[in-house]
Design brief:
With 219 residues, this protein is of the alpha+beta class. It is built from five helices and ten strands, in the order H-H-H-H-H-E-E-E-E-E-E-E-E-E-E. It is globular and about 40 Å long.
Length: 219
């Protein structure tokens, strides 16, 4: 009986040791949930946009990072930080920002500043952007003008366009269908159509202030 009791005692003691040795480490699930839901991943505190642009984790329970980028934007709002640039580009309203939209061809209008020799149709105008199209009649030459602080990008849809700029209008740029032309801010210039057909171009201007400033002549 003594031997049996000793065996039972040793066996229980050994089982207890094995249980303590083999048992997995305890994890406080409350802490894990708190980190997953409330603590953003700040690998680079100098670039807040990096938190939004990082690819999502493959796992469904990756601790330390919300799976949806909307959680990061919610944290930004709660902490008083501006929305990331990517979110603003998608139409998030912060101040006077715009929503994503489509402007149909029939919705363009001509209630915008005009220059002699060409006709502009505005698609939309935001705080820092103007976009629309312009038409140059055959053999037409526009008046001299510049676009203030705006940088202008021109894409030629049809016909040909000629831009004269620089000192005395001595720099001449010619573009045809599929070509892009760039006009820097405050660059005095004029556009002309050297052909017998109508020219149609797309205009996108980025900047602030007056979109068109008509002047008497070249720089």
């Amino acid at each position: 009986m003594g031997w049996t009791g000793r065996r039972h005692h040793v066996g229980a003691f050994g089982a207890g040791l094995r249980g303590r040795r083999d048992a997995p480490p305890r994890c406080d699930r409350r802490v894990r949930r708190l980190r997953s839901a409330d603590v953003p991943d700040r690998r680079d505190v100098g670039d807040r946009d990096a938190r939004v642009c990082q690819p999502p984790s493959r796992g469904h329970g990756a601790p330390g990072r919300p799976r949806d980028t909307r959680a990061h934007r919610q944290l930004d709002r709660e902490e008083g930080r501006p929305a990331p640039r990517a979110a603003r580009a998608l139409g998030t309203r912060r101040g006077r920002g715009m929503n994503a939209m489509v402007v149909r061809a029939a919705e363009r209008h001509r209630q915008t500043l005009q220059t002699s020799g060409m006709v502009r149709e505005e698609a939309f105008q935001a705080d820092n952007t103007w976009a629309g199209v312009a038409y140059n009649a055959p053999r037409a030459v526009s008046g001299w003008h510049h676009h203030g602080d705006h940088e202008s990008t021109i894409y030629v849809l049809s016909g040909r366009i000629r831009i004269e700029c620089g000192p005395g209008g001595g720099i001449v740029l010619d573009g045809g269908p599929g070509d892009f032309l760039l006009v820097p801010p405050h660059e005095i210039h004029r556009e002309s159509n050297p052909t017998d057909g109508t020219t149609e171009i797309v205009l996108v201007r980025a900047g602030q202030g007056a979109v068109v400033v008509n002047v008497e002549g070249p720089a």
